[in-house]
Amino acid sequence: MFAKNVLNLKEACEFLGFKRSYVYKLTGSSILPHSKPNGKTIFFEKAKLEEWMLSNPSSSFSYKKNLASSYITSKRNKTAKP
Hints:
It is a single chain. By secondary structure, the chain is mainly alpha-helical. It has one domain. The protein contains four helices and two strands; from the N terminus they run βααβαα. Strands 1-2 form a two-stranded antiparallel sheet. It starts with 5 loop residues before the first strand and ends with a helix. 6% of the residues are buried.
């Protein structure tokens, strides 16, 4: 859908699925990576937007459960007396 590497504000809003006002809020708070080469018009690198969208991942419950189970099992093996 977006073959361009650099997006303007309207395209970035469509790409992110956010309203214009929310994107302005994120850029004004320096949360969303952007460029303002002439001090007015905002541009976004598509790759940086994708990286930002995928930041702070959350693991699934089953993954966390398996991780906890492995941790408990390893602790039991270390504390068990021979």
